Amino acid sequence: MSINKAILIGNVGKDPEINYIKEDLPVARFTLATSETYTKDGQKITNTEWHNIVVWRGLAKVVEQYVKKGSKLYLEGKITNRSYEKDGQTKYISEIVVSNMQMLDGKGTGTSSSPSYDASPSSIPTPPPPAQVMDDDLPF
Predict the structure, then answer these.
(1) pTM recorded for the entire structure
(2) Which one of 38, 62, 70, 127 has the fewest beta carbons within 10 angstroms of its own beta carbon?
(3) Gyration radius of the chain over CA positions
(4) Would you say 19 and 27 are in contact if contact means Cβ atoms under 8 Å apart?
(5) Domain covering 6-109: architecture
(6) Where along the chain do its domains lie?
(7) Cα–Cα–Cα angle for 25, 72, 68, nearest 5°?
């Protein structure tokens, strides 16, 4: 058994780039900054890591509509590695392919506010229980 899962909370580094592979297949790409602060020799030190984020399909549409530079996000996904050719050299890149996203600041950084969006299964409303049917209500 193996597990490949990344959980990140951070801020979007720049407005996401949205591309459509097909008319109905969007992909969003952006960077996410995560920071940790610690004290060394009496000095406060902040270490920031930058993560390459990839979001597909329905979540990419949510990203396109609501996510902007500076947005605070909770992301879950898997770590992937790929390579590509550029200027005759092979480049390697690690990315987080997102499967679950929640907006934590509840608004974009623009002038209008946007609702927060939780794509996790627990955010789907539970339907009310079915009405109880009594035996005398049955037509047979």
Answers:
(1) 0.72
(2) 127
(3) 21
(4) yes
(5) Beta Barrel (2.40)
(6) 6-109
(7) 50
On whether the CB atoms of residues 81 and 51 are closer than 8 A, the answer is: no
Query: 89, 94, 95, 51: which is closest to 73 by C-alpha?
Result: 51
CA 83 to each of CA 62, 90, 107, 120: distance values in angstroms, whole numbers, following the listed order: 27, 6, 35, 30
Query: What pLDDT, in 10s, does the model give residues 54-92?
Result: 999 999 999 999 999 999 999 999 999 999 999 999 999
Closest Cα to residue 48, out of 34, 69, 30? 34
| Mean pLDDT score, 22-46 | 94
Residue 99 and residue 89: Cα distance in Å, rounded?
A: 31
Q: Are strands 89-103 and 43-56 parallel, antiparallel or unpaired?
A: parallel
